[in-house]
Amino acid sequence: MEKYNKEIILMSIRFKELSKIGYTNNVARSLALGIISKYCKHSTKDEVLAILSDLLQYPDKYKTNEIWSRLAEHFSPIMEEKQFSVYNLLDEPLAFKTYGGKFIDSLAKQQIELAMRLPVTLAGALMPDAHAGYGLPIGGVLAVENAVIPYAVGVDIGCRMSLTVFDAKADYLTRYSHQIKEALKEYTHFGMEGGLTFIMNNKIYLQIISGRGPAECFRAVDLVLEKILKHARELKLEAEVLEREQGEINRTLFSAIISLEGNKIDEIVDEWEGVIQWTAQSPYRIYHKRKNWFVGVKSFTPSELSDVDMKYITYQTLRSSGAGGQHVNKTETAVRAIHNPSGLSVIASDQRSQHQNKKLATERLLVKLSAWTEEQMMQEAQKNWDNHNSLERGNPVKVIKEPLN
Fold it and tell me: Is-above-0.85 flag for pTM?
């Protein structure tokens, strides 16, 4: 009989009926039906609905009820008094150590000074690469007493470290400590706009151009690019394709720009720079008699990029897309660099740090600008091929006899 009564009440009280008497919240309705199924086996439907209506109107009088207290607390939660303390910022920031101070931007200094006014702060410092962050500068260090401050981080998760192993004993550091310190100061990037005073010579850029020749030359550019990248891998060089100007036909390129970095870049330059002759039957014009197709490979070093006046370059920030976690999704880490006189622009979003992407965008823009300047000079010097870019086809540095397929 008990089972019968229970089923009658549960079957006759529906969510819609609870909604009619004011139980519009799913949590409240679930709590109510749970209590009914457990404790209201001998109650009628009208009795249960009357209690529920009264409870909704006067929840406080049911808070001590053994059966209905949980539902009553849902409508009238017990407020617990929270104890908290108010702290005032210090009138003056505590002293802190700054490394490479003259190269660190003012916003980063303002952020660390504010952090040094916190009453829980014990000590702080700015590292040479410090730049503006969110709660604390990126490259800032803060020590606090008996406190955890999640916001006191730079929110730059794209930091990098470098390890160099020397063939020397431990006492070498003691005997030559002064020289080592000076070397670190001399060859370390400081601050937002920091840079070395000399140009490293283990990096070059290669531009592969078709001379705006026929489609066969565009195909040769794509194949030469593949061969240079393969050669770079064999020499254990770091290679990155910075720019691909796609041709109108599949697997063809008007031009390409790649960066190469490593100790054997000279071998690449010696073998590939100049005019490359590709000898093959045309895959696009079967009965065409011509079999020699030419592309040009031009190299330039970072030092050749330094002549560009940086005041003509402007920057825009935008949100990165793709993998990278919360930092990439919520902040504008990607950077677009624009060369105003030419209108050329590039976007860098490879890194999770806006600072690193700005440097990368600047580098890529300078490379693209140098390649663009080279093409402009070629166009000025054009002499043949129906007003296409001029490409000197005599004395090729390399002859490749392979199909263009």
Answer: no
